[in-house]
Amino acid sequence: MNTEANNTKSADTNLKAFIFDVDGTLSDTERDGHRVAFNRAFDEYGMDWHWSVETYGKLLAVTGGKERMKFFVEKFLDKDKVPENIEAKIPELHAAKTRHYTELLSTGAIPLRPGVERLIQEARQRGFRLAIATTTTPANITALLTHTLGPDSIDWFEVIAAGDVVPAKKPAPDIYDYALNKMNLSADECIAFEDSENGIKSSAGANLSTIITINDYTKNHDFSDASIVLDQMGEPDQPFSVITGHANSASYLDCDLVIQLHQQSTAS
Ligand code: XBP
Ligand code: MG
């Protein structure tokens, strides 16, 4: 069992900030959110593209919606099926996709994953600084946070590093480097939360300890650099399963366990 939560950061940790990925980590947004929004945009533009659950899993090899569409054109479409001027049309299509995605989120269709709200609230109470590092479009984060944690929650994150703010998206470390720089913190003062191989390549590339919560699309990814791999953050009445690593006697992810994992990985 987890011990009772403290109200302050433990004195002997140099951990200062939690940096969260969004898609797949805060919420399972890909299959029933982003994928559906892409398909609605394709329908709106009268295109015969349709990304199945399975195809979308392959397309997730590339992060970023515009980049993903380009990847689809280059690797999945027969040459004679490529629409004229598609490169020029992608930004417009992507804007439509963002509109469909944020509309979908506004219906409350996509909740946060188990344990996310609890961990964020505990981290705030204990004075940890919070940030976001993601490839998704800023409007998508605003919509997700507004319709899950409430509109004020956007201000809980002192840095929201997102989308095209860095040209090289994950797996490049740039988005994490950007967030660290904005917070004026070093990598060993922070910990990252990720769900995917591209995500941990990015966070580990920026020298951050990383806690992984897998999902259906990422369960077979390589997480050998992770501090721990969990099926979910878990709740007191909904224990996590440890895929790899050691949770000591904890059954859900709380700040004490985050501190322990951070200490172990920065000591090694
Ligand atoms: C998330 C993504 C995002 C979304 C789409 O990766 O790959 O591209 O699927 O977002 P990560 P946009 O969780 O590693 O950040 O369409 O807004 O680009
Ligand atoms: Mg992710």
What topology emerges from the helices and strands here?
Blueprint: E1 17-20, H1 30-44, H2 53-59, H3 65-75, H4 86-106, H5 116-125, E2 129-133, H6 138-148, E3 159-161, H7 174-183, E4 190-194, H8 197-205, E5 209-213, E6 228-230, E7 242-244, H9 255-267
Parallel strand pairs: 1-2, 1-4, 2-3, 4-5, 5-6
Antiparallel strand pairs: 6-7
Helix pairs in contact: 1-4, 3-4, 4-6
The structure holds xylulose-1,5-bisphosphate (XBP) and magnesium ion.
Task: Describe the protein's architecture and organization.
By secondary structure, the protein is α/β, with parallel strands linked by helices. The protein contains nine helices and seven strands. Strands 3-2-1-4-5-6-7 form a seven-stranded mixed β-sheet, with helices on both faces. Strand 2, helix 6 (138-148) and strand 3 (159-161) form a beta-alpha-beta unit. Bound molecules: xylulose-1,5-bisphosphate and magnesium ion. The site of magnesium ion has 7 residues, from loops.
